[in-house]
Amino acid sequence: MTPRTAEPGRPLRADAQRNRARILAAAEEVFAEHGVAASTEEVAARAGVAIGTVFRHFPTKNDLLAAIMKGVLAGLVEQAATLGGDDSSGTGLFTFFASTVEQAATKKAVADLLARDGVEIQLPEVLDVLGAAVHGLLRQARAAGTVDRQVQLPEVMALLAALTQGALRGNWDAGLRQRTLAIVFAGLRPTPTG
Predict the structure, then answer these.
(1) What is the pLDDT of residues 102-150, one digit of tens each?
(2) Exposed e or buried b per residue across 11-33, where buried means at least 16 C-beta atoms within 10 angstroms of its C-beta
């Protein structure tokens, strides 16, 4: 018997949306605590729903993990968009860097669990949207003169990826995060002339 899911393009009922949100929140906690080997039954229990409800929304564990990753990335996109809203100061990019590195260091990210346990989930469309949001922050920073005009998006994304992975895997404390970010930020700033 194949689990029923919402029809594509058809919005979920309000109660189904609440259940989905509870399942995702519970799954993020459960997988962070126990790794991807944790059972979907434990996710259902923590969410306060029946296991069938979990499978109606997420037919496989990989579907559930992909939804969590998509949510994490969507949150980053939203944060970048909010920071870039009317950022004439050009500091949004730095705030985004610091916040993202902080999140990587203080939360056991699902991305790390997936990589460590060999589960591969591709979300290129979300990563493209994240890149576009970060590019907006970079353009604002260059226009405000807080980032050197020669700095391009590939370098920014590489630095962001390296810092978040370092903070995640290296268990960086707050002091190390601050010192590392200070060095990276100094490298991004315009070179003084004179």
Answers:
(1) 887 766 545 555 555 555 556 666 678 888 889 999 999 999 999 999 9
(2) eeeeeeeebbebbbebbbbbbbe
